[in-house]
Amino acid sequence: MPLPFVFIVLIRAAAAACVVVSASVLAEAVGPFWGGLIVSLPISAGPAYVMLGLQHDPAFIAAGALGSLAANAVTILYLLAIIRLAPRLRWPLTLFGALTLWFAAAWLIRQMAWTFAGVCLLNIAVFAGALSATSRIRLSGTINARAAPRRWFELPMRALLVGSLTTTVVTASRWLGPSLTGMAAVFPIALTGLALIVLPRVGSTASAVLFSSTLRAMPGFALALAVLHLAAEPLGTWLGMLAALLAQLAFSAVLLLAHRRRRGHGATALSHAAVRRAATMSAPTGHR
């Protein structure tokens, strides 16, 4: 293997791993809403697509984004499996079941010839079903209240997982073709790396809350992939990627504003209830 190629592989792995590890550490340190918002960002697919953009033309990137958009629906099912299985099974079985579902569903999707409209409808239908199935989970509190101390190998393990996947996808893309490369690029390696850590550390309930928050932010990633598919050829690879990133950030900003508004309404309702209780307790007792 030529030495320059070794350096290229190491740079790819290190760049992707640094981004994903930093984001997953932040996700553990903050509440479930912020954690879900962070993890739903393209922290593993983003570096993979940047590396693909250095090797392939805009047409390849656009076709790959369509494959990624189809696989995004599978990732939603993966998140749903973790949310539903975590409170019922031990964490290794939870993760095994979610990964098995991802590969099975990805295989089924791969057997079909998808149009852009069809893939969008697939994502909408799968997300609506998953949202309905997790509608009773409250996204409040923290995800690390009782977390055990982080073990020395956890962060290097995440880095190794993400770096290995990014390197494999980008290197194999010349043989896989755009559609399969796009599906592989959005394999939930960052989510899996996070699940390997949080499931045994913070418990099933807190993990389900975190991944439920991530699920609710997934339409932003789907929007980014749709924009990349539509914009890569007319705007070029890099402007298309920038437009996709801005679309997801805009969606995240909308979620943030809605979250703050809900919290504001909740605080107002609590204060009104407190005032009513105080007035009731201080009111003079009348004659019957």
Radius of gyration: 22 Å
The helix content, as a percent range, equals over 70%
Query: What is the N-to-C order of secondary-structure elements (H for helix, E for strand)?
Result: HHHHHHHHHHH
Number of domains: 1
Strand content: under 5%
Plain-language structure description:
The chain is an all-alpha fold and 288 residues long. The chain has one domain (3-282). It contains eleven helices and no strands. The protein has helices at 3-29, 32-39, 45-53, 58-85, 91-110, 116-133, 154-176, 178-185, 189-202, 204-235, 237-282. The longest helix has 46 residues, at 237-282. The radius of gyration is 22 Å and the shape is globular. The termini are far apart.
Which helices and strands, and how do they pair?
Layout (H helix, E strand, L loop, with lengths): L2 H27 L2 H8 L5 H9 L4 H28 L5 H20 L5 H18 L20 H23 L1 H8 L3 H14 L1 H32 L1 H46 L6
What's a concise summary of this model?
This protein is mainly α and 288 residues long. It is built from 11 helices and no strands.
Provide the descriptors you would attach to this structure in a database record:
288 residues; single chain; mainly alpha
